[in-house]
Specification:
Structural class: mainly alpha
Helix content: over 70%
Number of helices: 2
Order of helices and strands: HH
Largest sheet: none
Radius of gyration: 13 Å
Number of strands: 0
Shape: elongated
Length: 54
C-alpha cells in the first residue's frame, strides 16, 4: 500500500507541475494533481486486487 501511495504521489506531483507549466493557475494545477492521484491509486489498487486473486 505504501508503494502505491508513493507512486501516486510522484505521478500527481508531475501532473500538477506539468499543468502549471502549461499555463494553468495554481488551484487548477492542484486539482489536476489530485485527479491524477485518485486515478493512479484506483488503477494500482485494482491491479493489486486482480493480481492477488490468481
Amino acid at each position: 500500500m505504501l508503494l502505491i501511495l508513493l507512486a501516486a504521489g510522484a505521478i500527481s506531483g508531475v501532473a500538477g507541475f506539468l499543468s502549471h507549466a502549461a499555463g494553468n493557475n495554481v488551484p487548477a494545477a492542484i486539482l489536476t494533481g489530485g485527479g491524477a492521484f485518485a486515478g493512479t491509486v484506483g488503477l494500482l489498487l485494482a491491479i493489486a486486487h486482480y493480481a492477488g486473486e490468481k
